[in-house]
């Protein structure tokens, strides 16, 4: 939804750019508004490419959803088969028969073999002992017959186990196949996510069109601010040059007074450099922001004049410093 909303705002943003006129100093033939500055055809091709890419990604997304649904259905089938396999293993006839015979042996025959304590009056009767021996022999015979029957069912149990193992291995192969399909879908989903993130970044570039009018107004204000700073910078340089020139003039006047009053009475080579004057000051102010347009506005004419005067003053300071630097020497003043 946000993707569609951003694409819908492109035309509105282009129309808004067309309603913002450029400053007269920035206008050229064929470029009168902000809309003329941006490459409209390139932006339209870019948005068309985004729409085509979005359609392709939507098709891939739908295909992944279908594959995911198929894998889910296959998983449900495998789960049902595994449950059926476990239930068949528990309900197999040989297994049930062995369980019944085992329960009969444990519940009926084995307890019958337990030694019974005779009553006191019959403890020494031979008939009772003979009767117990016959009963025990019958129980042992039945237990032996039951064990042979259980042993005879081992073949059926082995066949049942083989069928169970074959079915279990088949289920394992099916699970492995499903796992490979799931990994394939996960890889495709990861690649699709990366491509969607890249497309989101491309769509974010369209936000520049929406923010361009306000940014343009801020740029005009920034140009005014920088030109004001440039004018103030050169004014401070000129002020520094004037201050230094005044200091040099005062210092040289004091040195001349010293020479006229005291220095003229001393040998020239007594104190080397005593007769030297302070050279004229040289203040170099580097020029900058020359390419910024003159946007005019309130006080722009005075500002431009001050900038021009400051630049001329800085140039004259540099020229004067370079021309007079060679004139300064350490020779003593002539009387």
TrEMBL record:
Coiled coil region boundaries: none
One Pfam family matching this protein: ATG17_like
Disordered as annotated region, ranges: 285-335
GO biological process: autophagosome assembly; autophagy of mitochondrion; piecemeal microautophagy of the nucleus; reticulophagy; ribophagy
Gene Ontology annotations for the cellular component aspect, listed alphabetically: Atg1/ULK1 kinase complex; phagophore assembly site membrane
InterPro entries hit by this protein: ATG11 (IPR040040), ATG17-like_dom (IPR045326)
Domain Autophagy protein ATG17-like: 3-263
Ranges annotated as biased composition (Low complexity): 301-335
Name the record gives this protein: Autophagy protein ATG17-like domain-containing protein
GO MF annotation: an example: molecular adaptor activity
Lineage per the UniProt record: Eukaryota, Sar, Alveolata, Dinophyceae, Peridiniales
Keywords, comma-separated and alphabetical: Autophagy
């Amino acid at each position: 939804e946000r993707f569609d909303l951003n694409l819908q705002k492109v035309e509105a943003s282009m129309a808004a750019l067309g309603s913002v006129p450029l400053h007269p100093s920035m206008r050229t033939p064929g470029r009168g508004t902000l809309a003329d500055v941006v490459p409209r055809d390139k932006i339209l091709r870019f948005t068309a490419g985004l729409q085509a890419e979005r359609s392709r990604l939507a098709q891939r997304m739908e295909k992944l959803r279908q594959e995911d649904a198929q894998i889910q259905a296959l998983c449900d089938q495998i789960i049902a088969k595994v449950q059926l396999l476990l239930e068949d293993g528990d309900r197999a006839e040989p297994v049930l028969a062995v369980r019944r015979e085992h329960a009969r042996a444990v519940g009926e025959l084995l307890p019958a073999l337990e030694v019974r304590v005779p009553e006191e009056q019959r403890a020494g009767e031979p008939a009772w002992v003979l009767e117990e021996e016959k009963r025990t022999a019958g129980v042992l015979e039945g237990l032996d017959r039951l064990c042979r029957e259980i042993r005879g069912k081992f073949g059926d149990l082995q066949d049942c186990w083989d069928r169970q193992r074959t079915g279990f291995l088949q289920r394992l192969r099916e699970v492995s196949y499903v796992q490979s399909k799931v990994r394939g879908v996960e890889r495709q989903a990861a690649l699709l996510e990366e491509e969607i993130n890249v497309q989101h970044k491309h769509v974010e570039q369209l936000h520049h069109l929406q923010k361009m009018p306000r940014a343009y107004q801020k740029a005009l204000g920034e140009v005014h601010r920088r030109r004001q700073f440039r004018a103030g910078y050169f004014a401070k340089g000129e002020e520094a040059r004037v201050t230094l020139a005044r200091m040099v003039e005062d210092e040289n006047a004091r040195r001349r007074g010293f020479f006229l009053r005291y220095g003229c009475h001393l040998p020239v080579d007594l104190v080397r450099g005593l007769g030297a004057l302070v050279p004229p000051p040289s203040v170099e102010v580097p020029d900058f922001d020359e390419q910024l347009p003159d946007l005019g506005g309130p006080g722009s004419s005075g500002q431009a004049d001050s900038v021009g005067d400051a630049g001329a003053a800085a140039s004259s300071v540099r020229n004067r410093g370079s021309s007079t630097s060679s004139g300064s020497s350490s020779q003593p003043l002539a009387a």
